[in-house]
Amino acid sequence: MNHLFSHLCLAAVLILSAQSSIPVALGADEEIGFDRDIRPILEQHCRSCHSAEAHQSGLVVDTLEALLRGGALDGPAVIAGNSAASPLVSRLKGDSKPAMPMSGTRLTDEEISLIAAWIDQLNPADVAADRAAGGSRSWPWTRFAPPEVPTVKQQQWVRNPVDAFVLSALEEKGMEPASQASRRALLRRIYFGLIGLPPPPKAMAAFLEAPSEDAYRAAIEKLLDDPAYGERWARHWLDLVRYSDTVGESVDYPRPHMWRYRDYVVRAFNRDMPYDRFIRQQLAGDAYRKYGAEGKIATGFLHQWVFVQRVDSPQTRRDFLNDVVGTTGSVFLGMTLGCARCHDHKYDPIPTRDYYRMEAFFAPLTVGPEAVPFIPYELPELDPDLWKKKAEDWKNLLEQRKEEAASFKAKLAARVTPHYQLMAPQDLKDWVVSDLKRTPFPKRFLYTKEDTERLRLISRQGQRFANVNSPDYYQAKAFVASQGFRAHTAGPPTTYVLKGGNYKLRGEAVEPGVLSAVTGHSRPVDYKGLDIRSSRGSSRKLLAEWIASPDNPLTARVMVNRIWQYHFGRGLVSTPSDLGKNGGGTVHRELLDWLAWQFVRSGWSIKEMHRIILQSNVYRQSLRTPHLEAYRKLDSDNRYLWRRNPIRLEAEIMRDSVLAVSGQLNPSMGGPPFFPDIDDAVQRRAGVWWEPSPREERSRRSVYVLQCRSLQLPMVAVFDGPNINESCPVRDVTTVTPQVFSLLNSRFSHQQARFMADRIRREAGDNPERQVEHAFQLAFQRSPSALERDECLGFLREHQVEPDLPPRVTLRAIRFGNDLGESLDRQKEPGGDRLARLCLVLINMNEFIFLE
Amino acid sequence: MAKSEFEVCSRVERPDPRLGEMGRRDFLYGFGRGVGSLALTSLLCRDGWLQAAETAQDPLAPKQPHFAAKAKACIFLFMEGAPGQMDTFDPKPALAKYHGTPVTRVYGSLEKRIYVGSPFKFARHGQCGMEVSEIFPHLATCVDDIAVVRSLHTDSEAHPGACFMMNTGVPIPGSPSVGSWVIYGLGSESQNLPAFVVLPDQRGRISGGAVNYSNGYLPAATHGTLLNSVGAPIFDLQPPPGVTREQQQADIALLNRLNRPYLESDPGNENLLARMKNYELAFRMQFAVPEAVDIDSEPDKIKEMYGLNDQIKEPMARRCLMARRLVERGVRYVQVYCGGWDSHENIAEEHRKRGYETDQPVTALLKDLKQRGMLDETLVVWAGEFGRTADNSMDFFRSHPGRDHNKEAMVAWMAGGGIKGGTVVGNTDELGIKAAENVYHLHDLHGTMLHSLGLDDMRLTYYHAGRFKRLTDLGGRLIKEIVA
Description:
The structure holds 2 protein chains of 2 kinds. By secondary structure, chain A is an all-alpha fold. Chain A has 39 helices and 6 strands. By secondary structure, chain B is of the alpha/beta class. Helix content of chain B is 33%, strand content 18%. Chain B has helices at 20-29, 38-47, 50-55, 93-98, 159-168, 178-186, 245-265, 270-292, 300-306, 314-328, 347-371, 394-399, 442-452; strands spanning 73-79, 102-107, 109-115, 122-125, 130-133, 146-153, 196-199, 225-226, 333-338, 378-383, 387-388, 391-393, 405-406, 410-415, 423-425, 427-428, 435-437, 440-441, 461-464, 467-470. Chains A and B meet through α30, α33, α36 and α38 of A and α5, β8, α7, α8 and β19 of B.
């Protein structure tokens, strides 16, 4: 056994070093998977002759079943558990002739040993049983029943069934869970997890003073009731639906009304809308009379596709359908449905025909603008005064800009008369002599650099297209309900199975139907008396009903796995939009099923899932365990959950946290997005332009920042923000140098560091010791250690007195008023303020952006 | 206090000679090339963290190619807007005969159109006798170094889609660009400079925007970095005015000291060390980048060679010279843009202008690489996003004829990096409308580029959305005729 392990490890390591193309590190105890590890090798080397279509000498290498069946010459190509006797290996090694592959490059020794190791690992009994069952439906396609909660040895560790499932798996592996994290770490964990903001120092102090279980529960309840909870969790959902305020592509047209969908998502989370209703509304809210206008706003989900200009318009339609079908499959069903568009799914039981049967639900759908009245929960109805003020402000700003532009142009015109354009006496003479009466110099020679800049600014402010907050466009559509959400056409066109996904190669016509792997048949869906040809969105309604049904085996599993992922940094299945055979799989199927069952039983309550998960001991584990080294060797990815995984905060949460500790965070919710302050040069290169919102607006939470497909907020982009063009189920965590520029050099960081320093002076006075104490309390909700205190005091003491430089007046500040928070309102240059520099260092610290 | 942090603890670090004076000065401060700075090294050394710091994952650590590579780096000259094949490298005498003849065909919709002969003369050049348009008189002197592929075709006929296609192999946005694939496969040779650099045409933007140099689903470290050839090279590269270098150095030193205790509370998290290293790297990059793009330091002879003294050629000359300097300093993939090729109207004048702007700089780049012995190790590719039609709409023809978009035929050339110079591959039909002989798809061009860099397009895969994805989708064919 040991021998096998080292063999596997060796093979895995060799493969990884030889071939950078396999991204999944094989842990020591991980099984070699046919689909993940073996099939790509066979596909590359053998498939040109041994595919299901070619099958030279009867051998097909596409599936395990086909390999066990084998070919005409050797019989079975694979003998389970015995690589030495398997013809596949001897042919590849060249031990039996002819050696394979007959043409092309030989497999590397590492590849052959990996295949051999895989064969040795197959258990003949299991293989035989699987074959006998004839590929019967397997997890996650089967319906979930509540699994029995296992009994464990350390029963005292179990707070709720979640713990029992995890502990039982750990005990089986001979591992033990990590101890509980400190209460400080716990409070930070639930704050960031639920509302995405650091706890205020006072809340931390109160929590530490009352070390009871009730205090922990109360804290969870308080945060679930906090409106910031909806903002935090809406961002997760917006990642999945590729939410954007613009359409994407080259001419990145604004969609100034899309904020209504974003606000809908925030509301849905805050109100703990049952998840099944959330699904129905987003897929077919227009088809349910009972959902009214809110249902229509929810169909914003269907509007998120990326428009790409195509010369052949049928292809544009294909782009739309491919996008909406693929996204529906991955977001709600956790299946890579899109794979089946061109060929039968290679890993999961989804034939191409099923893909087009699913597509047929969307066949009548086109999206476009349609008036949807504001509903009582939307900002205009909720706070009409504020809303009126916003619209009024916008109008005034436009007026003001117009006036400014007019007066500036008049001023220029007055200065640049033909007389002044004559620069030298000779010019004047020439001009008088000539009959031309034309100005000898173009006007622009008389403009200063600032004049030219200002003229460019004026022209951009009025620009219609590249300007995302273009005056007429934005005013016309962001503030009125007339631009809403339509999703409808009458008379659905027939859907055909397309060969290779090519719309020119039509095959069989299909009727709407759901996945045959779930229903066991591929008959058309039961129309239930609905006339799908006339009734609004009815066909989508049938699909929504099926997806949101408690009987659907995928829906609840997918969602609870996502909730788990957002709390633990990694889902029970690490590929949350792919629960299929080729996804990451899970060692905790029973736990996932139990949670899914609880989820449905609770009335699809997401908040209830938070309560269950957050109260478990599994969630409360520490990062630290004495067994770190040993357990890493056994389970490098911590799939068994023997400790807490460290989490790096997402870019948006980092930004919000900086605003929170600097005291600048503007908590106002909802409404049109704010326009961030982005460097002019960067905007110009991206081909879009907007005028930054006033600073107060820009200090709102990041969920309200303009989501522009052609220009993502640079800080979000460098810290692994979502790819706005497609559904993003997991944020990467990479460490790259531009992140340093963004957090250490940017105008945003420096401004906020100064605000934080001001706040500290205001709240803690001038005593450096108290300043340092308060800075640590704000940033990390703890006192500095003696060492840290000394370092910081030393830092503050050095060059304590530095010369104040005169404030710089920049063109940017003039342009947009003084609200950019630049040096105009400051007496000191950033380098001169030592406390501000200390604050800058604190927000750059690992402790600030990693969650314990 | 601060000084002592910079003492060498165990390794002697050597400054990078290519950094010149700037590098040596940095070395004194302890920011030479190497793993982290001496400040960080000494800090970690004391705590026994050094080994961990060195093994901390670097997503861009140099990797072995799949097979012996001809090229180490690639410069892609993107002629955005798409030059017409029959006006550059694919002479069509027959088309001249049809000039002014009406034709009715579907272009978007069925319309009456008119054939347009090329306004440019072609002549044979070099030992190979390659035919080149008169708009490239300089390039004509080094045709024996370049290989022209006349029989390419692509999948999209709209600018953004075709740019995505050329840059990412997929006509819709969201996939990794070629440069990202290359540095994902090979890693970075330079520690102080970004590995994948884009030099945009300052006159406009790339059609489709940042998606063209995005990492798509590959790790974020493989994202392309825009370098301005005018003004600040990278966004936020420098701190705001008023922050001095010494101050920033003190800030980073404090940051490193304050970060140290946290290593204990989150054991085994490689990202913590990687981040600490990154602050040092970033600090070095602040000097390395301006140095790399400082073309004023080049001798006058070289500046003249690229055409920097000609106001019209200057922008492209600047970008080409920057490209050479970057590749010289270990940058793996440089993309140089020159827009303005979209001549629906007045091709005679517009293409001639583009030729004038680009010809001397591009030729100088080839010759300069060659005289430095770098051409063998540098693949140079020249292409637009698609080809152009043989005919034009009536409206434009009446005034100044031009050509519209055509995805069925396009031309590209490659040089260096094991490409057989003086070769012409494939052919279009009589009028240059459609690739006809030895037809190659854009995936084949991508596959051949990867091949030159030592990468097998079938093996360069990344698992995403349920399957292993590739730049060339189901695989590209090697353009064998041009591979030496």
